[in-house]
Amino acid sequence: MKKLLVSLSVLLVLCGCGTQKNENTEEIVDPSTLTVVTPKGAPVLAFYDWIANENYSRVAADAIGALWTGEESPDVITVDITSGVKAISNGADYRLAAVVTFGNLYIGSAGNDEDDTMDKDDKIVLFGNENMLPSKVFHYLYSTDYDDTIIYVADAQQAAACLMKGVDLEGNPVDYVFLAQPAMFAALKQNENASVAVDIQEAYRSKSGMDIVQAGVFIKNTVSDATAEAFLNNLETSISAGIEDPEKMFNALSVYEGDEFMTQFGLPNLNVVKAVFSQKNALGINAMGLGFKRAKDIRNDIDAFLEVMGIEKTSEEIYR
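RESULT FIELD:
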């Protein structure tokens, strides 16, 4: 009888362990089958390993706003932190999982300023408007000191033209231009008198003690936690490998050439990408700002940057 009771006890324990294991087991879908969308530009570098994957799409940044809802919404959206957090607050069924770009912003000198120092009478070009990132970050760093001489142009392409020629769209001399890489690099190549005047990443950290966060990876809530974790692990490994050995990234990008390279990736050409990536910013990071960090681990950086952009601090619920 005692032997029977012992046997039954062992059986019950084993059965209990098996049930617990099943309850905690979550099916992992192959991460490469997830649908992924990024804007063209610097975030493409984070997904160089996905370029040949038919589930990966690159679109103009202003096209992403329509993808947060509906049956065609992708499993993963990479977009600027500000837009993604706003989308979630408006009901998008996503959570923020990681950050993959950490600042590729600079102020270039057009070569017209005799004392090479930003003064209140210097003409400074920002792209976008007062509510967009260039203006928000610039005013965080410099307050309203330069408001009387700021010139706004529509987009980064127009700002790059100002730095290339040293004049605004009306032909008047300008002193400084706010740009991102690799547009900054391309513009400097066209103006032998131009140079980098301010590394925004360094200036921002010096003032805030935090790092700039730009492109965030947002994963749809319908993706299981196990699959999301597998996807993030793969992405982190891929980005780390690309930073350690950039040729892996360049080989993947080389599938397109000439005008098609610009059309597909929103980047000037492979030689410019190579040149910029080989440079380091003042913080020792590649000048494109490529990296990988779990969003929940850098929540303070995210909240600080959102405050600069005029957005409330995040809640724990938005993080994956």
